[in-house]
Amino acid sequence: MEYRKLGRTGLKVSPLCMGTMQFGWSVGQEETQRILSATVDSGINFIDTADIYSKWVDGNPGGVSETYIGNWLKGSHIPRDQIVIATKVRGEMGKGPNDQGLSRVHIMQAVENSLRRLQTDYIDLYQAHWTDDDTPIEETLRAFDDLVKQGKVRYVGASNYATWELMQALWTSDKNNLARFDSLQPHYNLIERDEFERELRAVCKAYEIGVIPYSPLAGGFLTGKYRKNTPLPESKRAEGRKRSMTDKNMLLIDGMEVIALRHQAAISQVAIAWMLVDPVITSPIIGATSIAQLNENLGALNIHLAEDEIASLNKLTEWKKEEDD
Ligand SMILES: NC(=O)c1ccc[n+]([C@@H]2O[C@H](COP(=O)([O-])OP(=O)(O)OC[C@H]3O[C@@H](n4cnc5c(N)ncnc54)[C@H](OP(=O)(O)O)[C@@H]3O)[C@@H](O)[C@H]2O)c1
């Protein structure tokens, strides 16, 4: 596998990152262990999690995904330094007023909890899951900078930041000589292009920020398993995917199917391959719920879309309005 630099840093990551939001939600501990081992065997060295995964499941206190990863890593013979672990802070981890957010007090507490659950003494990439309007960005970045200096965190990144918020953070780091966001985790895929492409992409390119998009398959929709007049697939996410089944998106699936057949590939592989064409993208975060899905996702690395195929996918998913040009 060819590894890529995460933005301007020297950190090398695989061209796909294994997301772990599904672990403790749609996938139990044993299957998680098998999927993670197969992930590393495939050459993927990059794992993304968050402290809140998957707190939305009844009876789940949050931190379950990190706990599963920690247990798997401890039980495996994989040296810690062969894996790049990314996790996140921001979400509500308790009922107290300081049990969420990006304040110094919460970050300092949350990092200790993540380290304990992950059973490691450092986090490779610590990300702000989303912004916190109650905390000045300088306070957040100073706390992150201290964690880098303490060796508890290697790099810091952001997720779900608007362009001006990302620029403000970069400027604050620069002005105060603090660790800066070296990665961005945006919501980005063929049916959700505008949020990233409108302005964030240009910032990431100009400032050499590693881009690790989440939901490259739109939660499973871009696999072709959601069709009109067909029962929904068995998935915890199926109900939520109904909103993606617009006429425009169903035409896209038809177009993707034609391209997939030409490459003897799966529709999901076309979705991931499309994203990998862009040199600004470092490593899409996949969310496989089985080894079969993982293998299919990995197959995307061998699909090389022709220019006319990329153009046709871009046309089918065009989002720019005339006045944007
Ligand atoms: N920063 C954030 O705010 C944020 C938000 C969301 C996600 N994330 C990160 O991004 C990761 C990936 O997100 P995601 O799960 O939404 O990614 P995704 O790749 O868009 O969707 C993954 C889902 O699609 C289905 N799937 C995957 N491969 C398939 C295949 N080959 N054939 C059929 N179905 C397939 C699976 O669901 P079923 O098997 O249930 O159908 C799987 O859980 C998460 O684990 C998390 O680490 C971050």
Overall geometry comes to: globular
Counting structural domains, the number is 1
What is the percentage of strand-forming residues? 5-15%
Q: Which ligands, by name, code or SMILES, are bound? A: NADP nicotinamide-adenine-dinucleotide phosphate
The largest beta-sheet arranges its strands as 9-8-7-6-5-4-3-10
CATH topology: TIM Barrel
Q: Unreliable runs, pLDDT <50, ≥5 residues?
A: none
Distance between the termini: 38 Å
Mean pLDDT level? 96
* H/I helix tally: 11
Helix content: 40-55%
Helix/strand layout:
Elements: E1 4-5, E2 12-13, E3 17-19, H1 29-41, E4 46-48, H2 64-75, E5 84-89, H3 104-118, E6 123-128, H4 137-150, E7 153-159, H5 163-176, E8 181-185, H6 194-206, E9 210-211, H7 238-241, H8 247-262, H9 267-276, E10 285-286, H10 291-299, H11 307-316
Parallel strand pairs: 3-4, 3-10, 4-5, 5-6, 6-7, 7-8, 8-9
Antiparallel strand pairs: 1-2
Helix pairs in contact: 1-2, 2-3, 8-9, 8-11
